[in-house]
Task: inverse folding
């Protein structure tokens, strides 16, 4: 049983450093003005020093899931598919250190070249966003090199041989990744195919009692992520309830 206050103090400090909210406020995801949110988003995340775009509440969710699987000894490693600057995976590795777990690995899966181009006929909403000014002129398709992500791990003293990088498109890397079991499966690939590739390849490796976290399930203006999740759950007859973290992020716990 994890009982010391010190791990929680460390992880609270870590999440605030990763989100650059030690002294600044994060953009309000629930803001009534989308333009105001996006202006804040660009200033805080793209131009600022944040290592993760996750709101603090999503780190709280991730921490709760990690703590639960460690306390209940649910077997398996942790993975995030789509890592940007590496913040969530850095937090995963920090949590393993804080809670004294000496065996699990953290898998860092990304193209490190940005998003794959969506099929405009199958996924017109995603294609429009992919070619829009926001992605091409401001976000650069969220491309961050693996060297930069490694440097971010090193900056927090958390780069070691238990951090495993999977570089390339998910359809190529995930089927051949030497992952035996997973306890945390965090998906942040944004698009339909990226989400489906991760679910179809990795879900069978998720232990009973482990967690699936879908970062963009609630986003429906620019992505078909929700449809990918619903198609997959229907195909596998998964009826575990989806739990809301915030307006964009949802998760469920595998029960069988």
Result:
């Amino acid at each position: 049983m994890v009982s010391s206050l010190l791990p929680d103090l460390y992880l609270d400090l870590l999440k605030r450093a990763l989100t650059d909210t030690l002294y600044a406020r994060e953009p309000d995801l629930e803001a009534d003005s989308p333009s105001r949110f996006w202006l804040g988003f660009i200033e805080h995340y793209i131009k600022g020093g944040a290592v993760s775009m996750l709101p603090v509440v999503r780190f709280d969710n991730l921490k709760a899931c990690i703590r639960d699987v460690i306390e209940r000894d649910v077997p398996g490693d942790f993975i995030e598919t789509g890592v940007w600057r590496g913040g969530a995976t850095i937090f995963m590795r920090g949590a393993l250190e804080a809670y004294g777990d000496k065996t699990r690995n953290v898998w860092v899966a990304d193209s490190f070249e940005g998003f794959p181009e969506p099929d405009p006929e199958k996924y017109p909403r995603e294609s429009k966003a992919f070619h829009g000014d926001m992605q091409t002129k401001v976000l650069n398709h969220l491309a961050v090199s693996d060297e930069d992500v490694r440097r971010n791990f090193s900056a927090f003293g958390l780069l070691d041989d238990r951090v495993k990088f999977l570089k390339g498109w998910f359809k190529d890397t995930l089927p051949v990744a030497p992952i035996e079991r997973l306890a945390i499966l965090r998906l942040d690939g944004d698009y339909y195919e990226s989400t489906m590739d991760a679910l179809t390849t990795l879900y069978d490796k998720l232990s009973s009692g482990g967690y699936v976290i879908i970062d963009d399930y609630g986003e429906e203006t620019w992505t078909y992520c929700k449809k990918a999740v619903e198609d997959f759950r229907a195909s596998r007859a998964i009826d575990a309830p989806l739990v809301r973290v915030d307006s964009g992020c949802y998760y469920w716990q595998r029960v069988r």
In short: The beta strands are 77-81, 106-110, 163-167, 182-187, 206-214, 243-244, 250-253. The chain has ten helices and seven strands. Residues 55-253 form a domain with the Rossmann fold fold (CATH 3.40.50.150).
